[in-house]
Write a structure and sequence with these properties.
The protein is built from two helices and no strands. By secondary structure, the chain is mainly alpha-helical. The radius of gyration is 32 Å and the shape is elongated. It starts with a helix and ends with a helix. The longest helix has 47 residues.
Length: 76
Amino acid sequence: MNRIVTITLLSIALLLTPAFAQTPNPKETEELNSLLKELQTQQIKIAENQVKIDEKLATLAETIREARLFSSRGGR
């Protein structure tokens, strides 16, 4: 008898649990959206900075290559 009562109570509790689910707070949702926008802005800036870094590295690599060419022609 106790088993049936326990199983019934657990079943009812499991069925009612989603009814008590927390609804999203509009303030929290707004805050989350602003944080996501800020994160997206930061990611765009990081991507732009990465492009600049890549360009500078390519320029530096070319300069080093040219310097090696000229130094090898120097007649050691």
